[in-house]
Request: fold
Amino acid sequence: MRMSDVIYMPQAKWKAGERRAFKTASMQSDRLVPAFKVTPAGSFDPDEQRVLSPTEYLRRFGHQLAESRGRRLAFIDAELVDDDRHRKAVDAHPLTELLERARLCGANAAPIFSRNSSADYMAAIRRFIRRDSNAVICFRVGLQELEDIPSASDLAAHVLELGGAPDRTVLLVDGGPLQIDEPEDLAHLLAIQMARLISQNTWLRVFWSATSFPDKPKLKPGMLARFPRSDWKVYEAILSIKDEFPVVPMFSDYMLEFPSDYKPMRVSPTAKLLYSSENDYIYCKGNSTKIGEKYKNIFPVAAQLALISEMKSANYSLGNSYIHDLANGKGKTGNASMWRWCSTDHHLAIVDEQLTRAFGISRERVAPIIHAEQLQLV
Reply:
């Protein structure tokens, strides 16, 4: 695949539900590259039905990435496992371990780094580049950091010091969590900073990322709430003034996650479904799976969600089909991983629809690797 064809780079937590969503996505593979944030070991693994040790967790990465992406590119941010606990679990640096495990399994992983990456982490990036001078890497720069960088040459220097080349580097300008009332103002501000720091034909690809997904909304069981997708509104504002940008950045978001809560979780899940409409994030919460009908608590959640005006038909995506089945009380209840999967699968589909419309390109769906019948067995 060519990075010049990629229009969407979602930032995703390294969880089973998200990995499965990239396997079932109807978006054409050459338009999509995920950026996975590898979370620390210690959470319950839905595939193994147990908590994996740090060693097991890191060593299974290659197989899991190959299952999710095949030979297609995925970017990997390993800064959360750049600590003593994970370093002691493997012989090499955790980032090196992940990249090598991916390579041995036939997967295509490339690292993400930032200006705050540790010296050991940067050393692992250098080893990766030395192994393959044509290797692609991703450089994440926070929105607030842009003002601290004096010039375009200073921005490029962060890559050159690693032995890399900007034209083999994806630049990810990351706004993180944002609540924006005036998207146009932010778009103009971003255009000014990017015009100062980015020259044409310098970087392999440039992405703008942000999210307005809520952080721990206080909802009671049975409640449904909407939160504006102002991250998408900002991107629409960027496209409306694209002539002000030296390079039109492509789109990135955090899908249906707030960028926090990376610590391992071992609590019983709450029955909930998340959903993206053109304009909103929709959060539908049910009861804990510890009480009442246990995992069947997801059925009334899905039934409530299915009644909203923005609900897509069952044939819109596999995720939507699964939600409709839950709403009708059909098949298995699934688990928290499957609920994350169907929500994320739908999100990828609606972003695909919005981006192809925005860029005026054909939206030709692809056949997913997993079929609907197989999902009923999960």
